[in-house]
Give the backbone structure.
Amino acid sequence: MLLGVLVVGTLRQWRRQNAPLKRMLVAGAFAGAVTILLDALVNFPLHLPASGMNLVLLAGVAHSVLFAKKPKAMSKSTARTVGAALAAFAIFVFIVSGRDWQADRHLNLGNRYLQSGHYQLARREYEQSLSMAFGPTEVLFRLGGVYYQLDDRQQAKAYFERSLDHYLTEESLWNLAVIYFQDEAYEQSLRYVGRLLAIDPQPELREKALQLKENLNGR
């Protein structure tokens, strides 16, 4: 919907302009905004404050008073409304940015604890990161790994499965195949082995996956 509104508005703006430079500016701003929105169809770029600000900036440039035939000054009431909206947006961006920064800090600290074998400390940091992250990605995978190290296969399985929609890795699929195999859920294990082999993993992991598949087929 937003993409459609942007397309219609920019085409109208383009037709209204006679100066080649202004048409070029409209096209450039439009192209940048469309790039961000198209990326959002398959990715999640707008959880980053910088991406959201870029989208607002480009859409604003494409519809700015620079391209109006007769720019009009804002009334005081309109100026106050716009100012309040901008202030609210700035506060929102500040809060989201701060929480994302804190989430990344806890994630990085958890990674260090995990590498040194301090699994409980790593778990605590990862859970803090998950509670603060606006769009959790890697931390779900990391929590799966740390719970597996703590021999809590149920929690590990739950986090690995959640991570598949946000941070799909070969290791996630392999770990799920192994966990289900250990739980004697062979059909589920075979399903994850199949998904892993379908994405053509690294040769070493592919060899292990083929061995596990052969073992599963023999049951």
User: Anything to note?
Assistant: The two ends are 51 Å apart (CA to CA). The CA atoms of residues 16 and 67 lie 8 Å apart. The chain has three domains: 2-70, 100-167, 169-219.
